[in-house]
Predict the structure.
Amino acid sequence: MPHIALAALLLALAVQTTPPASDPGKDAPSATPPAASAPADATPAALRRKSFNVDETGLALQGYDPISYLDKSGPKEGKKEFAFVHRGITYRFATAENKAKFEAEPAKYEPPYGGWCAWAVIDGDKVEIDPMNYEVIDGRVYLFYKGWLGNAKKKWDDKLKAEGAKKTVTAADSGWKKLADADKKAFDAEPKGAK
């Protein structure tokens, strides 16, 4: 019994401090725009880097090609020579064609919720993802935690089956808006010149 309580405590702490990682439901969501608290062009690059799941260099998706998630063969690691920085976030691509496709419509291909675990975002948490644990719904790539604490995609899939894709994505969009608003408030409160 103490092991269960300890595991629950560790999970709660991990969800609060570390961001985590599909079979769509009956109801397909309408074309869902990228979730954000402000119009994409109004968000400063520094705030985006603070809100997005990126490494210390600003690299998103642990270097995976965001376009490749939509290929039948699945995600591929991007190459440094096909890197592109979009508003402070660096993406890598497996091919020059994928890079060009992203450059033409970055809002269409950026991962929802800054690349954090879509399931955790519903609860208002930023949790790391496993870049190979994902689901595509309505042309959008949702990413999930998968690790020693479990597989968040399984919970997402259960919610999809019970409530449908539209309701599940709407819940995650709402959670992300709250997180993005909190990030913006914290960013705005930082003294000028702070890093």
